[in-house]
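Just scan my protein:

——
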Amino acid sequence: MNILLTAIDKAAKDGQISREEVLKDVSETKNFKGILGFPVSFDKRGDLARSATYFFKVEGKDFKQVAVMTGK
């Protein structure tokens, strides 16, 4: 979410904003360190590049990893 919000802020700096600008700014994101601490980058198409997104499910008081999505 922070990557998207950062791209929206960047695209809106000139007072105008378009979907194309936001998508371009997302695809130019390189080594963004989110709350989990690992770097996230995107390729020209906006897909994850050499990074992963981990999905967790809350079970009781713990988190259980349920999936990993990589840019491969």
In short: The radius of gyration is 15 Å. The mean pLDDT is 86.
